[in-house]
Design brief:
Blueprint (H helix, E strand, L loop, with lengths): L2 H11 L5 H5 L2 E10 L4 E4 L1 H14 L1 E13 L2 E12 L2 E14 L2 E9 L1 H7 L4
Parallel strand pairs: 1-6
Antiparallel strand pairs: 1-2, 3-4, 4-5, 5-6
Length: 125
Amino acid sequence: MMSTDISVSFLNSFSTGDPIYVASHVTEDFENNQMGVLAEKIKGKTVYIERLRSFLKKFRELRYSASNIIAEANKVAIAYDMNCLVDGHNISMQGVMMISVSNGLIRERFDYWDGLSYLRQTGMV
């Protein structure tokens, strides 16, 4: 599978709400780097699955839509629109994922998104 294909499949997998399916796109030593106001960094597929369980319960009806994709060899940048429902609030944000692929799986992701916009939409700010 091409780097772009696995990256787009990963993005689309979140809409299933299935943490195991989402994590099937990543390596055992996967690094997930959330960037910005509410940043969090974790390493390892097992830890990622546990994090996904709570994330997907909180971010209901989650949909990512790629608006721009730039790829070169094993690196993919995807600008996206994200929509979901959090605690009764409709959330709509934009972001960019920078993805590194190794042997057909995602080894590392940097996700840049607007945490302040999220806090505003949920009424926390």
